[in-house]
Amino acid sequence: MNTRRILTPEGEALVHSGLPVDPLATTETRNLCRNLFLLTTRGLLFGMQDACGYGVGWSGDDHRSDVHSVCGDYPALISEELNRVQRHDAVDRLASRITSAYIRGSVISLCWHLEDPDHRGFYAGDVNKRRVVASILPGGQRHEEYTRTLETAALFLHSLVGPGGEPIPVIFRPFHEHTGDWFWWGAPHATPEEYVALWRFTALFLRDTMSVHNLLWAFSPGLSHVGEGDRYFDRYPGDAYVDIFGADAYFPRHISREDLRSFRENLHTVVSHARSRDKLVALTEVGQEGLPTPDWFTRVLLGSLKDDPVNAHIVYAAVWRNASTTHHFAPYPGHASVPDFLRFYHDPYTLFLRDVPPLYASPATPLA
Predict the structure, then answer these.
(1) Using one digit for the tens of pLDDT, what is the confidence trace for 299-335?
(2) Which of 309, 311, 260, 302 lies closest to 281, judged by CA?
(3) What is the C-alpha to C-alpha distance for residues 70 and 345, in angstroms, rounded to an integer?
(4) What is the CATH number of domain 30-355?
């Protein structure tokens, strides 16, 4: 029987596979985690960032979705942005979208483009490449401000409740793409020790100080950084702090054979590491801006996962948002990729909202 590590007040402990790293995770969060394990190799959940609320040529309708307009169905996973809470940007609408998606049966993910304490932004250039991470760690001059930011985030997470008052489970993905240089938490702007300390402090503060127990934690470096060997674990906070091994991958306008080979082989590395540590594995962000490759969904994405015995363990793949005719990652009505996306949608391996079982209910099949 596989085991995995969780963090307890007494230290690390081994538990059976399928459980979150938070030993006090809510019932629905535990059920979601176990059900995602059961779906591994059985199908691929399709997800999207900002799937509702706005799209190409429209905005303001939180129940509308470009994906739904194309195929008549919603993504199985809906990703939203916690930065909106930090900026006090239409927070009620954000909570409403999350609650509606949960009631429909979708998986919920939250990424966090965390702004620095002076609210200049989340890019390294926004903060003049200053070392923000060191300043918000315990002992840093801006640490108290960071704890207040976490308190605000925790209050929002506590506010997400289902029809029965149950906390809504969320896949939480902070400090992503940390292997690049574009975010202020990226590799050139924080030491490995500082990054790990930031992740661990954030996790323990939310869990132990703020009693947030409805999170699954996703770790997501850029896939191009992974390669072979153990580079995936650069700045890894530890098995006790991560539920999902993720990776973010974007394709260039012209996709070469080498691009496809590298994509598949780097995913092999991530999946192998996840399986060796009994973790879920996902493409936490993936896509091609503007979709100039009309068969990207079937040939590139599905073709790299479905029939690959290793990559078939990836449980979900989430494309980025639809903002305009030049910046979009899913089709919209009239786009040249619509016929291919419909083939992707109808493939038995891809799972949209109508295809998913009740993921928050107790698993019908026990885990080995």
Answers:
(1) 999 999 999 999 999 999 999 999 999 999 999 999 9
(2) 311
(3) 10
(4) 3.20.20.80
